[in-house]
Specification:
With about 160 residues, this protein is mostly beta strands. It is built from two helices and eleven strands; from the N terminus they run αβαββββββββββ. The longest helix is centred in the N-terminal third of the chain and has 10 residues, at about 5-10.
């Protein structure tokens, strides 16, 4: 066994970040708490960012977008209601086990649809930049509900 190779993988191999040691010093949006797990500074990651998001019961975030970054949200527990669009005119809901994809530059808002349960999610973004552009949007009163149809499996 090559000790130089072993030493390299020791320092540049798999990293386990305990859930109790997430970094709260990351870009925030009013109404939610983001905590970083995987960042360049913490793990050396260069192409993605990952962390958690929690939203208190019956609360919502401010409208925002993440620039050119793509985001994936995985709902761990609770009920997420997403609103998006120029005036947050579209809405959809997701529950435990569901994934949410947010394309680049899409104005959106996360809402905890539950009155008594915390919404807990895992968040992954396609880059390291802590891009959070908070927006001042006047939302429409009655958003259109959108149901996702998989374009690969719709028959």
């Amino acid at each position: 066994m090559n000790t130089e190779s072993t030493s390299h993988w020791h320092d540049h191999g798999v990293k386990v970040i305990p859930g109790s040691q997430l970094d709260l010093q990351t870009a925030q949006t009013p109404g939610m708490l983001r905590a970083a797990a995987i960042t360049n500074a913490r793990t050396g990651a260069s192409k993605l960012w990952a962390g958690t998001v929690t939203i208190e019961p019956n609360a919502k975030t401010g409208a925002h977008h993440h620039g050119e970054l793509e985001s994936v949200i995985f709902v761990v527990s609770g009920r997420a209601r997403m609103r998006w669009g120029e005036n947050l005119e579209f809405t959809a809901e997701a529950g435990p086990g569901d994934f949410i994809y947010v394309p680049p530059f899409v104005p959106h808002q996360e809402i905890n649809a539950s009155r008594d349960e915390i919404l807990s999610c895992v968040l992954v973004r396609s880059g390291q930049e802590p891009v959070v552009v908070n927006l001042d949007i006047e939302p429409v009163e009655d958003p259109e509900e959108v149901f996702w149809i998989d374009p690969l499996h719709s028959s």
